Amino acid sequence: MSLTKKGNISLDEFCRAVHGAVWQEPFATRFARLSASGDRRGMVGMLAEMPHVADLRPGDSYEGKDEAQAARLYEKSLGATMEPGVEHVKEIRTCNILTQALFAAGANGRVFLDAIYERARRSYSLRAYASCLRDCECMLALPASFYDDSAENVRYFVQRRKECLQLERECSRKLEATSSRKRGARGRTFSSSSSASSSLSRRSSSSGALPNVDGKPHGYLASCPDSVELRSDEARGRHLVATRDIRPGTVLIVDRPFSFSTDASALGRNCLHCHATLKLEDSVKIPCRDCQTVAFCTEACRREAWEAYHRYECSIFNYFLKNSSSNERQQTSYLLLAYRTTVVQALSLRNGAGTTCALNPDFLRYHVNARDKDDDIGKECADLGTRGTYSPLDYRTVFQLETHCADVEPHVNLIRAVEAIFLAKCLISVLSKLDVVCTAETFVSLAAAMLHHLQAINCNAYEIVENVHDEATRIWEPRNVGAAIYPTVSLVNHGCYPNVVRHSYPNGIVVVRATRFIGKGCELLDCYGPHFLSEGKLNRREFLWKKYRFLCGCDACKQNWKLPLPETTCYKCTACSEPTDVPITNAGALTNRRCAKCEKTVDLKRIEKQLRKSIQKRLSAIAKMYYGNYRDALPLLFEHAGFVNKYLAEPNVEGIKTEQCIVQCYNFLGSISV
In sequence order, what are the residues at sequence separation of 6 or more whose Cβ sits closer than 8 angstroms to the Cβ of residue 17? Predict the structure, then answer.
């Protein structure tokens, strides 16, 4: 198989070719030895010597602009016939055709100018003023240098620019008038602004504002309050523990992603940069200026994405999409995430304008040595979170993430090493066009970094989700948008009965809240996938061992919790919190019971009566949720959760039902879509 022809070799083909060559002696034994020792750089260096790798020259692979198609679509939009009584529907359909024309058109051509202005004008006629302003912003951000090849083109550009400026002023006045009426109706006084920029601030696809952590910020954990602390031991590694009693709903982590990516299925429905949904009524799709594949919700998102990472992936984007692996998300979102993680840090020396770039020698230093962490780097990272600031945007926290490099099977490391080499070759191809020279030594360092990130992502990446409302069930269901590295969230260990839950917010931010009471000294526990309600202990442990290389020892596993639960749910002693031997279904026949541990008398009849009243609070909350009053439901759920925590032993159905309701309420307050 020839691997030298540009643009014709896919990642799958490359992997098959290298894999077949490596599993021949003496290469197989040599690679297995490097894998077992965790020698990441050695694995990459060995593969780099092979002809298949040395000959690889990946070319551009992306869906470029098509001016002829753009012109046809624009003409189609102008020729759409008006049907009586359906003007509004017709305008929306025309806007959709114009959007297709925009994505096919190059930003330096007349079709783009015509289509962006026409879509803005039609949005104005639909009274979608915010959408109109976003199109105007996109048009006004175009540089005149795109059109200075002839005087005629310059005049045309200036004319369209004047028309957009006029449309922008009219939209701003309309929005200000609408805002003034709303302020007057509320009887409140707010500071006013007539600037278009206030209307064009990045949209939120969230029903609630981004929360802050509850309590005083932690001195070293930048994303946490002081109600948690970082600890470490041999059995559990690094983990987070409560420093005081924590109530349900408490915000324990607000983490920003170090890097993020988008699933292939979400490229057309979500902004590539902030992940806001593009399916709401006031949304517009802003195209990349170079490719047809990705979309943005505002010109600001397009510009920020281009400067930070998209300029280094745009021309090779199809390499992340056209792979035949059955695990599609692994082959798109995770590969793109590893690539961006490298780009974000390796090219962090770019100037403010983003016009030049250079490889960051400090980044390469982390991946020069054969082992995971040399002494100097280990010392730099050792105190993060305890005596030094642990920030999600600090690359050292990413470098610290567990990789299990030496623990996984050699064939797994081989697959990731080949993927890493392919990604490094792609990056070097892109950098060569930007006059960045990469030596053979630099290539090995970049490939070792890609491999490190792929390994860390496999056991540390988290989903970015948006919640979609099912009208039939009235339930908010999560839908994957992408993946991200959250270094602080990665400090939370797994439990098959978790006490925290994650929710995505715009811009990839994740919020972690307590779902039930967490006592002082107890560990924060997330769920990495298998929950005891859905999987048996053996299946859970098998999954966790294969993916994360640990044998779960949470309460659900140690005590082998099983469904159904009602027969095993018992009351707790309010004095010592020890479970009694009385199931709640039998308590009505008793008046009191002496605790076997502390000998305090427990009035079971009174507690049973209070339980029935407390359950009514949960049922009332569910009624409010049914009609969309999630904020009003939360206080009732918290009250019931307090009663359950005080009187009922775990696990119990009431606690689980209440936690699920709390999660549903926060699903509504996080990122949502239609």
Answer: 1, 3, 52
CB atoms within 10 A of CB 661: 20
Q: Regarding beta strands 601-602 and 593-594, do their DSSP bridges make them parallel or antiparallel, or are they unpaired?
A: antiparallel
**How much is the pLDDT for 192?**
36
Burial of 316 from C-beta contacts in 10 A (0-12 / 13-18 / 19+): buried
Contact 290, 64 (CB under 8 A): yes
476-504: average pLDDT: 96
Given a contact cutoff of 8 angstroms between Cβ atoms, the answer to whether 607 and 647 are in contact is yes
Q: Is residue 86 over pLDDT 70? A: no
Q: Which helix (H) or strand (E) holds 475?
A: strand 475-485
Which 3 state secondary structure label does DSSP give 573? coil
What confidence tens digit (pLDDT) does each residue in 575-616 have?
A: 777 777 666 655 555 566 777 677 677 777 888 889 999 999
Q: Residue 515: in which H helix or E strand, if any?
A: none
| 543 Cβ contact partners less than 8 Å away, ≥ 6 residues apart | 529, 530, 535
Instruction: Put residue 209 in one of left, alpha, beta given phi > 0 → left and psi -120 to 50 → alpha.
Output: beta
Reduce the DSSP state of residue 570 to 3 states and report it: strand
Distance CA 222, CA 225 (A): 8
pLDDT at 588: 55
Closest CA to 475 of 673, 615, 625, 619: 625
DSSP state of 249: T
d(CA 264, CA 481): 9
- C-alpha neighbours within 13 Å on the C-beta side of residue 499: 26
How many CA atoms, within 13 angstroms, populate the side-chain half-sphere of residue 120? 27
CA distance 549 to 254: 27
Virtual CA dihedral for 95, 99, 101, 102, nearest 10 degrees? 130
Residue 566 and residue 585 in contact, taking contact as beta carbons nearer than 8 Å: yes
Strands 510-514 and 259-262: unpaired
d(CA 511, CA 525): 14
- According to DSSP, residue 522 is labeled P
Give the pLDDT score at 568: 59
The C-alpha atoms of residue 59 and residue 267 are separated, in whole angstroms, by 22
